[in-house]
Amino acid sequence: MRAYGASGEDTADNTGTGHVSPCRRWPAIYDGSRLTMPERPKILAVTSAASLEFRYGCTPAWWQIWKGLYEAGADVIVTPYRGPAVQTPWWRTEPNPCEREGESYAFARDLFARVRGDTHLRRAEEHPEDTLADKATREVITRWITPRWKRHLERILEREGDVDAVVVFTVPMSHLTGIPSELSRRFGVPFVYYDGDVPMSLPEFGGMDTGFNIYHGADLGEYDLIVSNSEGGLPRLLEMGARRAEAVFWGADPEFFRPMEIEKRHDLFFYGYGDKFRREWMEAMIGEPSRRLPDVDFALGGGDYQGDTGLGRLIGDVPFNVFAEAICASRINLNITRRSHATVPYSSTCRPFELAACGAAMVSNPHAGIERWFEPGEQVVVVEDADQAIAAYRDLLDDPAQAEAMGESARQRVLDEHTYAQRAHQLLGYLGLDRVMV
Fold first, then answer.
1. Is residue 4 situated within a structural domain?
2. What is the CATH number of the domain that holds 210?
3. Are residues 164 and 179 in the same domain?
4. pTM
5. Residue 318 is part of which domain span?
């Protein structure tokens, strides 16, 4: 990779460590006859998945931030760790070199779960054990999958020649052990790890049952930078060995998540992937209120709810292309944050930003730091128990104008502070690639 200082001189490998400083290139220059455009910063994105069919919670957010990077002037190349590559107008693609192996593993894992009478192989919610099966799986991946990914990334970096940064988007870190150190030395390109699920991804929580405990067997020090959705989780990442850690909160694309003038079909709407880490709040905000307010329609999208959802009406999966419509079709939308995120300060999740961008009247469980993003009482109602939830629902259902004003204020807050265009510029800044694009 070629890197340039503020004056335009070549500064490749100017650190003396084998690492190249992030690029800073010339601005566009008009010489009176033609406009010479600068090179676009080039980012290789190694992502957990690019296809929305796997229902990974982060994937729609990755789409929005990659689109934001494109709109900021970056050339983004996306290669997925699971599933097929998905082309869009906003990024280029490289294939998944182990797609068949990944789907074979997922099939075997799901089959084993069904044999055990469940849909997932579930881990404990606190300090889950690193089992012999987990260790055996990592050993197989290290011997078979990791070398193939190393060769895959080598070929991309050799062919492209001028990648400014490799950003790994929540691929299990232990599955790529050794790759960042070796390829960074060889190609002089910084490696960045973007974890969008802190603190739930940390070893003490173990992540979702659909994935891996991603940090077991990993070396955070291989990466030049760890980016996290959680400001409160940064000290833990540094304690685990990160050399540098920065927070980029989730947000929303206000062009996709926008208010729609459609008929209201539900009184309350909640959508989520399971109730792990939030079962008690599902009961307090849905289970108990739905029994005490039998005339109120509680619509629940998603699935894998193991706890008390009372009289809530299950509507199943909501495809992402109509998700904003589903939000706008409800008089009240619920933000029920998992305990792991709600108790570690400033641990952002996607949902409140998406709801707010749609102009939704939002009711949330307590979330440490939510006031950093939205003003309680004006842009979101925070409830402490079932009684407060019932009172909030009644107030908002009885006063549609109040609900509408709350939603309008929340959307304006998103437009002012929480768009993915803003998040993309923040990320480029951390990469040293935040020059003005012309």
1. no
2. 3.40.50.2000
3. yes
4. 0.85
5. 266-418
213 & 274 share domain = no
Task: Tell whether 59 and 178 lie within a shared domain.
Answer: yes
Is residue 11 situated within a structural domain?
no
- Over the chain, what HEC string results? CCCECCCCCECCCCCCCCCCCCCCCCCCEECCCCEECCCCCEEEEEEEECCHHHCCCCHHHHHHHHHHHHHCCCEEEEEEEECCCCCECCEEECCCCCHHHHHHHHHHHHHHHHHCCCCCCCCCCCCCCCCHHHHHHHHHHHHHHHHHHHHHHHHHHHHHCCCCEEEEECCCHHHHCCHHHHHHHHHCCCEEEEECCCCCCCCCCCCCCCCCCCCCCCCHHHCCEEEECECCCHHHHHHCCCCCEEECCCCECCCCCCCCCCCCCEEEEEEEECCCCCHHHHHHHHHHHHHHCCCCCEEEEEECCCCCCCCCEEEECCCHHHHHHHHHCEEEEEECCCHHHHHCCCECCCHHHHHHHCCCCEEECCCCCHHHCCCECCCEEECCCHHHHHHHHHHHHHCHHHHHHHHHHHHHHHHHHCEHHHHHHHHHHHCCCCCCCC
**pLDDT tens by residue, 357-403:** 999 999 999 999 999 999 999 999 999 999 999 999 999 999 999 99
237, 366: one domain:
no
pLDDT grade for 141, boundaries at 50, 70 and 90: confident
Q: Mark whether 343 and 230 lie in a shared domain.
A: no
- The model's confidence at residue 39, banded by pLDDT at 50, 70 and 90, is confident
Q: What pLDDT score does 104 carry?
A: 72
